Amino acid sequence: MKKIKRILTFFLVAGILWSIIPILILYFKKDPVPFSNRDMIEKIKENRGQHFGFIVYGDTHSGVFISDSTYLKLIRHANLEGRWGKLPIDFVAVVGDVTNRGTPRHYKIYNKLRAESKWPVLSLMGNHDVDHEEGAALFERYIGEKDFSFVNRNSYFIALDNGAHVISDEQFQWLEEELKKSQHYKNRFVMLHRSPISASFRHDNQPEVSPWAYRFMKLCEHYQVDIVFAGHEHFFKEHSFGGVKYVVTGGAGMPLDVPRWEGGYLNYVVVRVNVDYIDYEIREVFPPLWRFFTITISQDIFYFLRDAFFR
Questions:
Q1: Tell me: the pLDDT tens digits for 164-216?
Q2: What angle do CA 273, 274, 275 make, to 5 degrees?
Q3: What burial class does residue 235 get, using C-beta atoms within 10 Å of its C-beta: 0-12 exposed, 13-18 middle, 19+ buried?
Q4: What is the pLDDT, as a whole number, of residue 166?
Q5: What span, in angstroms and rounded, lies between the C-alpha atoms of 217 and 76?
Q6: Per the confidence metrics, is the pTM higher than 0.90?
């Protein structure tokens, strides 16, 4: 019996150590050539046909070991989408908090990580990306535009910066003009970091008390936006307002904000567009072994005990 325990312990420790190696290798890789959001849009503008997919996730928090290792595992899982030619994946959208503090080092690590993706990666500004005093300027330097729109096949996409938890009057004017343009396309998608509706009563995020939130939701309702994608809250949740679907997918790196059974798991969303319908699937990704045995299990135990004895 002791021998079996020693063997199991050996393989467990070996597996945990093995799960750390990929990110260590990435850290020592040469910096890839930086690419901007505009560069990525140029790559997809010639796409044709009305059947395609794209991937959305958020809150990668690059620059911290726990996030980097987890995000790399998610990228490798997501790279398996579209295999066997089932569905052409056109791009990946990261809905904010691409870095943990918005420092040059964190942007450089994010650049290494996103370069591992098989598809063009479009990146949005999040609140953590402006934590550094030069965060906004560094975002433009390493990633490019913060507010932008683009067309892909039969769909119109709008990306909006609300990393500072507000949407200015100038942004609203720009957003409405873009929504008017979007009426010429079959499908309309909006992406931003912070959802106008808090996705969980357990979280301290309360955007619905902000003046911009209601105004934003009414605009999306009026112009018949199909789906609004957001992050900020570290879990997966979905709900609807005024006929618009709101999807929060902020579980791509940092520890999760709610229990696993309430959406607190590493995740990304695969969206499928086919002529006259849109659907999506949530993908739960098993974390790196080292994180599972050190953080994930501890977090699940904490939430279980909290709910059992203190709620």
A1: 788 999 999 999 999 999 999 999 999 999 999 876 655 556 666 778 899 99
A2: 120
A3: buried
A4: 86
A5: 34
A6: yes
Q: Note the pLDDT of residue 302.
A: 84
Among 231, 229, 227, 222, CA closest to 244 = 227
DSSP β-bridge partners for residue 51 = 274
**Per-residue model confidence as pLDDT tens digits over 89-102:** 999 999 999 999 99
How many angstroms separate the CA atoms of 189 and 203, rounded? 25
For the chain, report the end-to-end CA distance as a whole number of angstroms. Answer: 41
Cβ-Cβ contacts under 8 Å for 74 (sequence gap 6 or more): 57, 252, 253, 266, 268, 285
d(CA 159, CA 154): 17
Whole-angstrom distance, CA of residue 295 vs CA of residue 311: 22
C-alpha to C-alpha distance for 196 and 219, rounded to whole angstroms: 12
Kindly state the tokens that stand for 72.
């790399």
